[in-house]
Specification:
This protein has a single domain (6-283), classed as Rossmann fold (3-Layer(aba) Sandwich). The chain has helices at 86-90, 107-123, 142-153, 175-181, 183-188, 196-201, 225-237, 265-283; strands at residues 6-17, 20-29, 36-40, 42-43, 46-47, 50-51, 53-54, 62-63, 70-71, 94-98, 135-140, 155-156, 159-160, 164-168, 215-220, 245-250. The longest helix is centred in the last third of the chain and has 19 residues, at 265-283. The strands form five sheets. An eight-stranded mixed sheet has the order 1-2-10-3-11-14-15-16, with helices on both faces. Strands 4-5 form a two-stranded antiparallel ribbon. A two-stranded antiparallel ribbon has the order 6-9. The protein is globular. By secondary structure, it is an alpha/beta fold.
Length: 284
């Protein structure tokens, strides 16, 4: 991490669901490039666990570097370095950490939340000192699905609001088929306990035909079939709609780039480097 000062605004409100405020945090480097990246803070369709800052006794909010990231006050966890905002901030991107509603809300409602956040950030671009025509989005696992689905469908007056998408190990290309093949997934992810028509309508396979932003997909070749199969489908089907895609396969890695011997820093570093390069190429 460079010596840039990071301006942090916490718990900014972008909407409401069931009388609960929906919020995000903004991270602004001292030297900005005008581009912005939205992070969908989601795993297992649960939002808000990942912590990117701390408040020391002095009350001074401090951005955490990639080796310090924690979940809910735990000790630093090596796998979390892949989610650090440090590289994006160093490059001058403003980063928005978006939280969606949690259980008992369903995944389609969470998708609506993310679209609402994109629309809000786009509409307030001048306030956040960003260029509304240079907004990207990324997420992992359920956050990867939400990043793709929202990135494809968030529009204002038919104009797309997202110009680039990056994902780690996303699911959801064909939810009905995936849940039929792997019924245990529905048990582990209650947000997917909705009618088949809702699953079908919000599957990525039905969202990309009209085209969409360039999309990066990074995944481990030993991940669950529920993840690997959608990754393959995205990489093979998106080009048919004229969408630029790039796939990065981390060999020997499973979900979250975990390996038999645990997490390796180099896997997270590689994912971060690919993500940063993607946004620099498509947003600057």
């Amino acid at each position: 991490m460079s010596q840039q000062q990071i301006g942090i605004q916490r718990d900014l409100v972008y909407g409401e669901r069931a009388e609960q405020k929906l919020t995000f945090d903004s991270y602004t480097p001292s030297t900005v490039n005008g581009g912005a990246v939205i992070f969908v803070n989601s795993g297992g369709f649960e939002s808000g666990k990942l912590v990117q800052f701390e408040e020391p006794v002095s009350g001074q909010i401090r951005f955490l570097g990639p080796e310090e990231l924690t979940v809910e006050g735990s000790d630093p966890i090596p796998l979390l370095s892949q989610f650090s905002f440090a590289g994006l901030l160093d490059a001058g991107f403003t980063v928005f950490d978006v939280r969606h509603s949690n259980a008992p809300h369903s995944f389609d409602e969470m998708l609506e939340d993310v679209r609402a956040a994109i629309d809000h950030i786009h509409g307030q671009a001048a306030e956040y000192a960003i260029d509304a025509s240079r907004i990207g989005i990324f997420g992992a696992s359920s956050g990867g699905y939400l990043a793709i689905a929202a990135g494809l469908t968030a529009k204002r007056d038919r104009d797309p609001l997202v110009q680039a998408i990056a994902t780690y190990y996303p699911a959801g290309f064909d939810f009905p088929a995936d849940l039929e093949a792997f019924p245990q997934v529905r048990e582990g992810l209650p947000a997917l306990n909705v009618e088949d028509a809702v699953l079908e309508a919000n599957s990525v396979k039905n969202l990309f035909q009209a085209g969409g932003p360039p999309t990066l997909v990074i995944y481990g070749d030993r991940d669950f079939p529920f993840i690997v199969n959608p990754c393959h489908s995205i990489l093979s089907e998106f080009p048919k709609a004229g969408i630029e895609v790039k796939g990065v396969v981390i060999e020997g890695a499973a979900h979250e780039f975990n390996r038999e011997d645990g997490y390796r820093k180099e896997d997270g570093d590689r994912a971060q480097a690919e993500l940063l390069d993607w946004f620099q190429r498509h947003l600057l």
